[in-house]
């Protein structure tokens, strides 16, 4: 209980959250009504009941469908501002949210619609909540590299408001190597690089993200534990892993929280962080992820709580001056 309180009340960074994954069913219905979009669900409860996933793809299908209600600048502002207020309640002081431009541009909604909203919401979060925000533009790996290069072109005018490039969507069959040119260009543009790897995909995808994309964090990475040499390397390089326990359970990456390998990853000396991924779909925000994991795992106590919270702040891409305030 003492540790749960420490976890909930301590300053922390959220380093793996998709802003589209914070779209709560209530907001989906409100935006559908506002925009005259009809939904194939009777009400909020019916939609929530559909959130029973068997793997990553079964989730992504609903996640991209949910995006369809996001049409106007106001919609994106309401989405981001609602999330920032929710994150501040969990004592998040720094958040580096992903956004998926291609899930919007494919519907004719461009950067000129969502970027001003994201910028304004971030400014308000800083001013009113003391919450520091760094946006990560994420490209969809199930689409061709050429589409990702075009997305990077479209992001160029907004570069001052972006901190990194990410890689998400259907992992299996879409290895990191497919996006070598995109990540090389993004790094030339001054963006930090991160990629989802080792969620459903094999340890080889984590290696590809490190060696070919030259990422400075691995998103998920839980399957690294299948490869002892990779584990040693991740520990030696202190490569941050943004682990998302409730996501892993909901997407059947692990059977339940009690069997999650996060304690082993920590014990092996890896720089592990706890994050929420798509909290509107997976049943919990960052404090829920932390406290439910600790409740399920007797091996986790105060030392691990302290390490996870400190890791989250250290692994952030915030300026060193900001980090010095938090750590
Ligand atoms: N997009 C949103 N959440 C994701 C996840 N957990 N893995 C891959 N792509 C995603
Ligand atoms: Zn994710």
Automatic annotation (TrEMBL):
Signal peptide (UniProt feature, chain positions): none
Cofactor(s) listed: Zn(2+)
Entry keyword annotation includes Glycoprotein: no
GO terms, molecular function: adenine deaminase activity; zinc ion binding
InterPro entries in UniProt: A_deaminase_dom (IPR001365), ADE (IPR028892), Ado/ade_deaminase (IPR006330), Metal_Hydrolase (IPR032466)
Catalytic class of the enzyme: hydrolase
Keywords per UniProt: Hydrolase, Metal-binding, Nucleotide metabolism, Zinc
GO cellular component: cytosol
Residues that, per the record, bind substrate: 278
SUPFAM superfamilies from the UniProt entry: Metallo-dependent hydrolases (SSF51556)
EC number from the UniProt entry: 3.5.4.2
Reaction(s) catalysed (UniProt annotation): adenine + H2O + H(+) = hypoxanthine + NH4(+)
Reported function: Catalyzes the hydrolytic deamination of adenine to hypoxanthine. Plays an important role in the purine salvage pathway and in nitrogen catabolism.
Annotated protein name in UniProt: Adenine deaminase
Originating organism: Thiomonas arsenitoxydans (strain DSM 22701 / CIP 110005 / 3As)
């Amino acid at each position: 209980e003492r540790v749960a309180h420490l976890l909930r009340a301590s300053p922390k960074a959220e380093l793996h959250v998709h802003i589209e994954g914070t779209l709560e069913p209530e907001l989906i219905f409100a935006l559908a009504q506002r925009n005259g979009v009809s939904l194939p669900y009777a009400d909020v409860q019916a939609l929530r009941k559909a959130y029973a996933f068997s793997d990553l793809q079964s989730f992504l299908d609903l996640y991209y469908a949910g995006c369809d209600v996001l049409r106007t600048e106001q919609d994106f502002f309401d989405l981001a501002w609602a999330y920032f207020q929710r994150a501040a309640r969990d004592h998040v002081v720094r958040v580096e949210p992903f956004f998926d431009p291609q899930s919007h541009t494919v519907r004719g909604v461009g950067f000129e619609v969502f970027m001003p909203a994201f910028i304004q919401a971030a400014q308000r979060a800083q001013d009113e909540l003391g919450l520091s925000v760094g946006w990560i533009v994420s490209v969809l790996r199930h689409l061709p590299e050429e589409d990702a290069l075009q997305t990077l072109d479209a992001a160029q005018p907004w570069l001052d408001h972006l901190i990194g490039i990410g890689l998400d969507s259907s992992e299996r069959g879409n290895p990191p190597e497919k996006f070598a040119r995109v990540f090389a260009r993004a790094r030339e543009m001054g963006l930090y690089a991160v990629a989802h790897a080792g969620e459903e995909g094999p340890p080889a995808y984590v290696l590809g993200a490190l060696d070919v994309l030259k990422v400075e964090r691995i998103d998920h990475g839980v399957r690294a534990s299948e490869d002892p040499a990779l584990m040693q390397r991740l520990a030696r390089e202190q490569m941050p892993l943004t682990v998302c326990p409730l996501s892993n359970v909901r997407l059947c990456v692990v059977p339940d929280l009690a069997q999650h390998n996060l304690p082993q990853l920590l014990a092996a000396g890896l720089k592990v962080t706890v994050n929420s991924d798509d909290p509107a779909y997976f049943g919990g925000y960052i404090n829920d992820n932390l406290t439910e994991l600790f409740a399920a795992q007797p091996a986790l106590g105060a030392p691990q709580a302290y390490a996870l919270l400190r890791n989250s702040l250290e692994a952030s891409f915030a300026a060193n001056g900001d980090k010095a305030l938090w750590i």
